[in-house]
Write a structure and sequence with these properties.
The protein has one domain. It has helices at about 5-40, 55-65, 70, 115; strands spanning about 75-80, 80-85, 100-110, 125-135. Helices cover about 40% and strands about 20% of the residues. The longest helix is centred in the first third of the chain and has 36 residues, at about 5-40.
Length: about 140
Amino acid sequence: MAIVAPVVLLVLLSLLELSLMFFSTLTMQYAIREGGRFALTGQTSLDPAVASQRYSAVIQKIKNNSMGFYDKLGTTISVNGTKYTTSTYSNAMFGNAGDIIVMRLDCDWKVTTPLLAAFFTDGKYHFAVATVMRNEFFF
């Protein structure tokens, strides 16, 4: 038991972390899709204090649907190939009415299980999720 138990526990923890990595990928895909659906309507209604900031409402919608993974994964957002940081967010970020927009989130999961970390570059599982949308004709 003393010889087999550590190996079995390491394999079980690796399996658990691998399943969490795939769960986070699916969750972030759902979050970006919901953020895209919100963005295409041109709404700014999520936060009344910043009603004029459409980008803030869209990013908040993504965060709300990410189950906390957005902040944990060190996510960066790209729109039409341009990467944005919190200092470069703007209302033009998600396009105008009728524009086709490609939104992408790049995420990094820090692998903690030693058995799995050897299979990933720098011990991180890097993944990207994206959605494509055409903005409605909003006013």
